[in-house]
Design brief:
Belongs to the metallo-dependent hydrolases superfamily. Allantoinase family. One of its GO terms (molecular function) is allantoinase activity. The chain is an alpha/beta fold. The chain contains 13 helices and 20 strands. It has helices at about 80-85, 105-120, 140-145, 165-175, 190-200, 210-215, 215-235, 245-255, 270, 275-280, 295-305, 345-355, 360-375; strands at about 5-10, 10-15, 20, 25, 30-35, 45-50, 55, 60-65, 90-95, 125, 130, 150-155, 180-185, 235-240, 260-265, 310, 390-400, 420-430, 435-440, 440-445.
Length: about 450
């Protein structure tokens, strides 16, 4: 959108409660109005023809790991990672504290990351703060700086980013509750999960699918139970990250009915791949919590469809192919892979095309609910007048196969779980605040176009 005023015509526009053939008037980076297609076009507008396209709110990726700044930005950096995001329809990246150093656990770490992202990102960005024992004293200041929430690990994490044990977790929740902050947790029982992985390594288990047994579903369930109870007792708002188990979603659904402020995030890969993918892809598909059974995946889809699952995050966290086999022992290899450029296409293929997921529900899962949860609504997460013109065009008929070697990501792995996946539906254009940042297969803006989005509510 080169002009200050632009009009998107002939597209199928995804609004919160319907898909409409209205035209979208954009002025100075904002959505000015929705116009009936029969109305006379305003004068002085650049006309953008979206015929045959789905016009949807840009995605807000609730769960991204940009390894920048720090010693790990050879895996991903803000420029490459944001280009990858833009190519997949993400217009706002919500960056997690790991694995950057220094982590975003205090003002200095926050300002460093905000500065680097501001110089390099091509899409808008928000920052999670860290929740570790030593950072609780800094939470209010981080909230005032604009952090969308605070991420902690109930499982073991790293020496530099230690797990949040129960006592500190309760203290952190009480602190957050005082300013209506959001706590986000990686929920697994630390000791049992760690013990299981060490045991399977010691017995030299050669069946990678047993990762689901080393860190069984009930280690996740136990941690979710405790977290929800603590949230209920402290009044804290809580998001459980990358939920993999239907039992956990059901527990949180019941907690919502009791008035507990809990949100459920899952990832596309937990809705597509079962534990058997590890036998084929091995450590290149290894992530935590583990992939579960096919039966569990079908139950998770039920909760995607009925609204029990609130948001979809990518958990984009690339490692190089060399890092993924460095230990020569599946049980000791690192967890994570890149995927922010394929997550939407995967959800369209598996959800919209295969299961009848509505475009409105998909937009809520990938944008609207995240904006509300993270204090960005109504500025972000919708295509209603007054919102930022964060808009994506999707060709719902394009068929293609994912090839990591063509990714904009800094780590161009061709060994991850999505490699070679046949997809139907593809992002063709991405606009951030009215500017076309991705189209025709290329990045169309300079590094640093993206701006910081703070939590306002």
């Amino acid at each position: 959108m080169k002009q200050e005023k632009s009009l998107i015509v002939n597209g199928k526009v995804v609004l919160p409660d319907c898909v409409s053939e209205v035209s979208v008037l954009v002025e100075n980076g904002k959505i000015k109005a929705l116009l009936d297609k029969e109305m006379e076009q305003p004068a002085g507008c650049e006309i953008i023809d979206a015929a045959g396209k789905i016009v949807m709110p840009g995605m807000i990726d609730t769960h991204n790991h940009m390894a920048d700044p720090g010693p790990y930005n050879f895996r991903e950096d803000w420029y490459c990672g944001s280009c990858s995001a833009a190519s997949g329809g993400i217009t706002t990246i919500c960056d997690m504290p790991l694995p950057s150093e220094p982590a975003t656990v205090d003002k200095s770490g926050f300002e460093l990351k905000k500065g680097i992202a501001g110089e390099r990102s091509v899409v808008d960005f928000a920052l999670w703060g860290g929740l570790i024992p030593s950072s609780i004293k800094d939470m209010k200041e981080m909230h005032d700086l604009g952090c969308v929430g605070f991420k902690g690990f109930m499982s073991f994490a790293t020496e530099a980013y230690p797990r949040i044990s129960d006592g500190y977790l309760v203290e952190g929740m009480r602190t957050a509750a005082a300013f209506h902050g959001l706590i986000a947790l990686h929920a697994e029982n630390a000791e049992v999960a760690d013990f299981g992985c060490k045991h399977y390594s010691q017995i030299r288990c050669e069946d990678e699918a047993c990762f689901d047994e080393a860190r069984p579903w009930w280690t996740e369930y136990d941690a979710i139970q405790r977290a929800v109870l603590f949230a209920k007792m402290t009044g804290a708002r809580l998001e459980i990250c990358h939920t993999t188990i239907s039992q956990g979603v059901e527990l949180m659904q019941n907690a919502k009915k009791e008035g507990v402020g809990v949100y459920v995030e899952t990832c596309p890969h937990y809705l597509i791949f079962d534990r058997d993918v590890l036998r084929e892809k091995k450590s290149f598909a290894k992530c935590t919590p583990p992939f579960r059974s096919r039966e569990n995946i079908e139950k998770m889809w039920k909760y995607v469809m009925d609204g029990a699952i609130d948001v979809i995050g990518s958990d984009h966290g690339p490692y190089t192919d060399e890092e993924k086999v460095k230990e020569h022992d599946f049980w000791k290899e690192p967890c994570g892979f890149g995927c922010n450029d394929v997550m939407l296409a995967a959800m369209i293929s598996e959800g919209v095309n295969r299961r009848g997921l509505t475009w409105e529900r998909l937009a809520a899962l990938t944008s609207g609910n995240a904006a509300k949860m993270l204090g960005m609504y109504p500025r972000k997460g919708n295509l209603l007048p007054g919102a930022d013109a964060d808009i994506i065009f999707i060709d719902p008929e394009e068929t293609w196969s994912y090839d990591g070697s063509k990714s904009f990501s800094k780590t161009k792995s061709t060994k991850g779980p999505y490699q070679g996946m046949e997809l139907k539906g593809r992002v063709t254009d991405t606009y951030v605040r009215g500017q076309r940042v991705y189209g025709d297969g290329a990045i169309l803006c300079q590094p640093g176009y993206g701006t910081f989005v703070r939590c306002e509510a």
